[in-house]
Structure to design on (565 residues):
């Protein structure tokens, strides 16, 4: 500063890279003023500088604390005539933390005062003893390499290169700090080397575009159960930094995308301020908020989420963990499904049967509980109940055509020495005609079936073949599952009779059922033998890669013995 005063150079203008003062200084030092000008930050308008081929916002620069390369200083003092500059304009960039010549970290100089004193490099270096350099691998300096190239040779192509330098560098560093140090790290306590690694990690993501940033946030969000922490805690360091940039519109491209991601992936209530903008609506929900807006009980919401694979039960049985917050559309779908659920009493009235008969039909797999029905409760999907009755009505003929041996289902079961549910299954499986005085208005108790027709389909030798019900008893499952096992070839059909009148009746090979039982076990039976809850046991098996046979969602699950022993 004293030297500038002695030779008539305006020190203030020189600090801001004024061309006339740069040229005068270059002339005095015997340097090329064009090179000196190119690598000196020059003020072009309030808050903006040029350096090389790049335009920089003042926030890119570190203009209060000078940093130097200890190796450059050492070489300058040993060989003054060959030494390169001991303080480069490039080093004023906040995100440049190493010397591009020696690959070591820049070291801060002890400030002498404030304001102009921070630029008096000669005074700052008086009595300075360079420390042992801290070398950095080239692989950790990719962001710096990009910065130096952007300044030295100009803008490249691609989304990342189109960003303003301060947006690109600062976003890369803060995203990288979230990735490498976690959401709870304090920016003021991060070392220069850690910032270097963070910038490198963030650059590796951002050079692949905006979608890569959002994919990284999604990956961070999925590291723990999604309902454990909300966006402020999961993205803390990065979120708080981005929020503090609200007065700089250059960050809008990052801020707008992150804000939309948060709106779509976290249960942000309508009107909540996210990065300066109120949420226009709540797009995803917790089970609690879903229950509030839908009027459906929380346990019903949770059961549906489990069935859809969006959640799994907590180990303590209280509530669920979420894979993802359900969208408003998903909640609407669940509400529609729940609205179609009816109680066992209502289902019995629709069919015209007692609760005991309804339980028999359910046990046989002819009607199933609603998907969201919890343990100990009896709810049915109304459409399935009415659909079951419709199937029976479609087989019904007018009373005028009723044969003499036609009797109600329960009487047919007694005469054929089988269960009522077996009789109904036999009718549906073989499309046997039913009879009623008013077919269109008939309910379950109004229907009759021919005993002769039933017996023609069920007379089979027990030692070689089984009915669906008998096969179900041996495997301790329902006929729905037996049919699925037959369809997928796990057990076999046989035709035990040669005469034409019995060929329509397909029965189960007893040997194939016994062979299947030797090699497979149902989830219910396995859980009972181990005194375990079936749902938790299933979750544990899935965790270890053990999968049940693929026979249908509504069927009982079977595993191979060799996989579960």
């Amino acid at each position: 500063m004293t030297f500038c005063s002695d030779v008539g150079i305006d020190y203030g203008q020189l600090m801001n890279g004024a061309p006339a003062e740069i040229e005068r200084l270059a002339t005095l030092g015997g340097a090329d003023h064009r090179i000196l000008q190119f690598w000196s930050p020059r003020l072009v308008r309030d808050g903006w500088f040029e350096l090389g081929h790049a335009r920089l916002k003042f926030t890119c620069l570190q203009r209060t604390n000078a940093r130097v390369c200890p190796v450059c200083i050492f070489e300058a003092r040993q060989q003054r005539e060959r030494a390169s500059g001991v303080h480069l304009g490039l080093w004023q960039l906040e995100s440049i933390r190493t010397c591009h010549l020696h690959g070591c970290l820049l070291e801060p100089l002890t400030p002498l005062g404030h304001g102009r004193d921070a630029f008096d490099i000669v005074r700052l270096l008086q009595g300075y003893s360079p420390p042992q350099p801290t070398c950095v691998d080239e692989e950790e300096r990719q962001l710096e390499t990009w910065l130096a190239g952007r300044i030295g040779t100009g803008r490249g192509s691609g989304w990342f290169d189109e960003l303003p330098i301060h947006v690109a560098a600062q976003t890369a560093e803060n995203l990288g700090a979230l990735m490498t140090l976690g959401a709870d790290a304090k920016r003021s306590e991060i070392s220069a080397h850690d910032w270097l690694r963070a910038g490198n990690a963030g650059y590796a993501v951002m050079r692949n575009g905006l979608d890569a940033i959002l994919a990284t946030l999604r990956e961070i969000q999925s590291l723990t159960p999604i309902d454990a922490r909300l966006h402020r805690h999961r993205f803390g360091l990065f979120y708080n930094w981005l929020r503090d940039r609200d007065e700089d519109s250059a960050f809008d491209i990052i801020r707008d995308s992150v804000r939309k991601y948060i709106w779509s992936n976290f249960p942000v209530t309508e009107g909540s301020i996210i990065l300066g903008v109120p949420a226009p609506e709540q797009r995803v929900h917790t089970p609690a908020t879903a229950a509030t807006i839908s009027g459906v009980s929380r346990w019903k919401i949770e059961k549906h989420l489990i069935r859809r694979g969006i959640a799994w039960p907590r180990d303590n049985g209280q509530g669920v963990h979420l894979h993802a917050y359900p969208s408003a559309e998903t909640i609407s779908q669940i509400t529609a499904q729940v609205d179609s659920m009816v109680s066992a009493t209502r289902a019995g009235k629709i069919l015209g049967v007692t609760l005991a008969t309804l339980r028999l039909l359910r046990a046989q797999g002819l009607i199933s509980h609603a998907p969201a029905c919890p343990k100990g409760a009896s709810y049915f999907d109304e459409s399935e109940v009415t659909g079951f009755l419709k199937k029976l009505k479609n087989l019904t003929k007018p009373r005028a055509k009723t044969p003499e041996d036609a009797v109600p289902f329960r009487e047919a079961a007694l005469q054929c020495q089988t269960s009522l549910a077996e009789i109904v299954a036999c009718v549906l499986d073989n499309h046997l005609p039913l009879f009623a005085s008013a077919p269109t208005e008939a309910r379950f108790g109004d229907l009759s079936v021919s005993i002769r027709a039933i017996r023609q389909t069920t007379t089979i030798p027990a030692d070689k073949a089984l009915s669906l019900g008998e096969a179900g008893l041996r495997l301790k499952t329902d006929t729905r599952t037996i049919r699925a096992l037959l369809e997928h070839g796990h057990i076999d059909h046989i035709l035990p009779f040669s005469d034409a009148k019995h060929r329509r009746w397909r029965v189960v090979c007893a040997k194939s059922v016994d062979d299947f039982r030797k090699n497979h076990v149902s989830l219910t039976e396995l859980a009972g033998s181990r005194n375990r809850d079936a749902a938790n046991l299933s979750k544990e098996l899935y965790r270890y890669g053990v999968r049940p046979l693929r026979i249908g969602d509504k069927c009982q699950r079977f595993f191979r013995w060799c996989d579960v022993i």
Observations:
- The longest strand covers residues 42-45.
- The two ends are 83 Å apart (CA to CA).
- Residues 165-181 form the longest helix (17 residues).
